[in-house]
Amino acid sequence: MKHILSGYPIQRPRRLREKAVLRDMVREFHLRPEDLIYPLFAVPGKDVVNPVSSMPGVCQLSVDNIVKEAVDAYKAGVRAVELFGIPPEKDEVASGAYDPNGIVQEAVKAVKDACPELYVITDVCLCQYTNHGHCGIVNGGCVLNDPSLDYLARTAVSHAEAGADMVAPSDMMDGRVGAIRDSLDEAGFEGVPIMSYSAKYASAFYGPFREAAESSPKWGDRRSYQMDPGNSTEALRETALDIQEGCDIIMVKPGLAYLDIVRRLKETFDLPVAVYNVSGEYSMVKAAAAQGWIDEKRITLEILLSMKRAGADLIISYHAKDAIRWMNE
Ligand code: PBG
């Protein structure tokens, strides 16, 4: 009774914070190297390293340099990469996206040859490959849904044929997971998982990526297919549909400003949840760090850990290689 009478608290949360060893012992969430997926951008040519000005530290790389970077990342502890391609030519129907000798297909083959243990995921979308920059087939100023599905499915199959371990559709057409699943199964790739960008918002946070991937829409925007930032419950409906259609991993994109959605997906569904720590989030950290305004290492590790705490099992992040290096220090 003495403590109550004298006004001292019985419960003192600070007891568990006093010593580092105990803080480590009672920590609820952990960031691990295997949580992170490292994105890479493949361009045509040989020995090409094009720095992306809005994303310091990120470069477009020709396939020979993609291989070097992938091997280097693997040695640093990166377990998985996600490959994006920028084709030599773009057209109405995104021919480069499903070309068996296309840029991503070549990059996948070369990376799997050089480093078979590295898990290779491919982004499945048409926007880098279309001359209008939209994620589907266009007619009369509209992005057509059903005609786009066949092209997306062909793209996914061509990635699997090149040796991709997993495909990740990011286009947001209705029914694309089902179309991709059917085509993969028909082609004998029933073991290749689909990580669906199931709740992908129409976001200004993708700005720097569009420089990296040269994928800005030439007219209009992506609001007729990507989700409205004002919606939350819609993310559950979108994700439920993708699960019905056979996806294996669900995703929220962007990350930081959408961690409430990560939490809702985690609590609603029993599939692994991925989150995309997108280009704009990366660039903001890099810009502030370059000014000396923030501690890049601490901020980055805190952001990634916060994504785990929100409910993410996997994080796609341009910080992946640095973060793993910092984790291991
Ligand atoms: C392609 C795609 C985009 C991103 C990943 N896949 C851009 C977009 O939808 O415009 C964004 C990634 C990032 O910003 O880091 N559809």
**Alpha plus pi helix count:** 12
Compounds present? ligand PBG
SSE pattern, N- to C-terminal: HHEEEHEHEEEHEHEHHEHEHHEH
Counted up, domains total 1
Share in helix: 25-40%
CATH superfamily: Aldolase class I
**Largest beta-sheet characterization:** 10 strands, mixed
Number of strands: 12
The CATH class turns out to be Alpha Beta
Mean pLDDT rating: 96
Show unreliable segments: none
Based on Cα principal axes, name the global outline: globular
Structural class: alpha/beta
Percent of residues in beta strands: 15-25%
Q: Report how far apart the termini are.
A: 47 Å
* The CATH architecture: Alpha-Beta Barrel
Q: What is the chains' assembly state?
A: single chain
The CATH topology? TIM Barrel
What is the CA-atom radius of gyration, in angstroms?
21 Å
Structure, explained:
- GO terms for molecular function: porphobilinogen synthase activity; zinc ion binding.
- Homooctamer.
- Keywords: Heme biosynthesis, Lyase, Magnesium, Metal-binding, Porphyrin biosynthesis, Zinc.
- This protein is α/β, with parallel strands linked by helices.
- It has one domain (33-328): TIM Barrel, CATH 3.20.20.70.
- Helices cover 40% and strands 17% of the residues.
- Strands 1, 2, 3, 4, 5, 8, 9, 10, 11 and 12 form a ten-stranded mixed sheet that branches. Strands 6-7 form a two-stranded antiparallel ribbon.
- Helix 3 (63-76) packs across helix 4 and helix 4 runs parallel beside helix 5 (146-162).
- The relative contact order is 0.13.
- The model has no long low-confidence stretch (mean pLDDT 96).
Write the layout of secondary structure elements.
Layout: H1 2-5, H2 20-26, E1 36-43, E2 49-51, E3 59-62, H3 63-76, E4 80-85, H4 103-114, E5 119-124, E6 137-139, E7 142-144, H5 146-162, E8 166-169, H6 176-186, E9 195-200, H7 207-213, H8 233-244, E10 249-253, H9 259-268, E11 273-277, H10 279-290, H11 296-310, E12 314-317, H12 320-328
Parallel strand pairs: 1-3, 1-4, 1-12, 4-5, 5-8, 9-10, 10-11, 11-12
Antiparallel strand pairs: 2-3, 6-7
Helix pairs in contact: 3-4, 4-5, 5-6
Bound molecules: ligand PBG.
Residues 123, 125, 127, 135, 170, 206, 209-210, 222, 278-279 line the site of ligand PBG.
